[in-house]
Amino acid sequence: MTNALQSSLQSAPDQSANQAPDPAGVEAFEARMVGALNEASMMLMTSLGHRSGLFDAMEGAPPLTAAALAERAGLQERYVREWLGAMVVGAVVELDPENGTYRLPAEHAALLTRSAEANLAVYAQYIAVLGSVEDDILTCFRQGGGVPYARYDRFHEVMAEDSAQSVLPALIDHILPLAPGLIERLEAGIRVLDAGCGRGRALMLLAERFPKSRFQGYDLSEAAIAWARAEAVGKGLDNLAFEARDLSDFDSSAPEAAFDLVTTFDAVHDQARPLNLLKGIRRALAADGVYLAQDIKGSSHHHHDRDHPMGPMLYTVSCMHCMTVSLAQDGEGLGAMWGRETAERYFAEAGFASVEVNELEHDPVNYYYLCRC
């Protein structure tokens, strides 16, 4: 490089630092941010509408005044009236200003009520749950560490509701058939483990459907396991057991060849030591066993996730829950968006001889990995 060229490059202005913002770009981004503020606010009110039962109270009902809706739902009229205001300006609920009555259109009720096949109001709850630990997360940004499971009062409750309409309806007819012959084996009677089972809703469904098989659930959360045990007892499921267990050392503590099927449902990525869990699952599988893992659909590279339909939501959940609960245990902090590339590498390092990646039409958010010894 000549001295003249070097001098020219050193004196050239940094376009990225000094370039004036494009007014049209500023206006477009402002519109986007204002829209995001409105939509995020609507998610909080949608969560309240779900939890309070207001959407369910309006489903199929004739137009109601705020007072009539409050009475129908057993709630305080002043709060219901203000909530209705948010729903009207958010174009969720319709208002007849002449009669002062409100109605929930059937098209909206089909996506916001407990009778709906896909109740999107369930997912709105994540915004409030994650927002409740914002101060804790900010402290972690500054000091490191993580936020423990105990700080999330309702996360397992919301996850169970989420699972009830995403995993459970598809489990028997779509997920299990990914492994040929698995349903027949379950009907004949095999040993099954769900690692990171949460409240155990998937295991309860399986235990009811396949009474000849034996089912075991492990999860770190004492509260989730206590709920699962009580529910299993209430259902009279004597082929199902739950244990609160830290799986960080599962690579050495897993019982050898003890299970014919092991499942994880969105559970690997928030473990303290996910590779140890996977090595333990490999150790726990019988020679002809199958490991079925549902985990978040994504790439291990940010730029490949820019077109993900739920990308911002999933990265937020990862930062404010999945990653941080792992770091709270001095763990790896893998995060929900660990991605397919990393997942396949971990499965191989854990000792699985074959890994098959499946997608299901009803589920744009998850991959379904079939791993064999």
UniProtKB/TrEMBL annotation:
SUPFAM superfamilies: S-adenosyl-L-methionine-dependent methyltransferases, Winged helix' DNA-binding domain. Residues 187-297 form the Methyltransferase domain. Residues 1-19 have a biased composition (Polar residues). Residues 1-22 are annotated as: Disordered. The keyword Methyltransferase applies. One of its GO terms (molecular function) is methyltransferase activity. It comes from the Bacteria. Residues 40-114 form the S-adenosylmethionine-dependent methyltransferase Rv2258c-like winged HTH domain. The keyword Membrane does not apply. GO terms for biological process: methylation. PANTHER family: METHYLTRANSFERASE TYPE 11, S-ADENOSYLMETHIONINE-DEPENDENT METHYLTRANSFERASE RV2258C. This is Class I SAM-dependent methyltransferase. It comes from Pelagibius litoralis. The lineage of its organism: Bacteria, Pseudomonadati, Pseudomonadota, Alphaproteobacteria, Rhodospirillales.
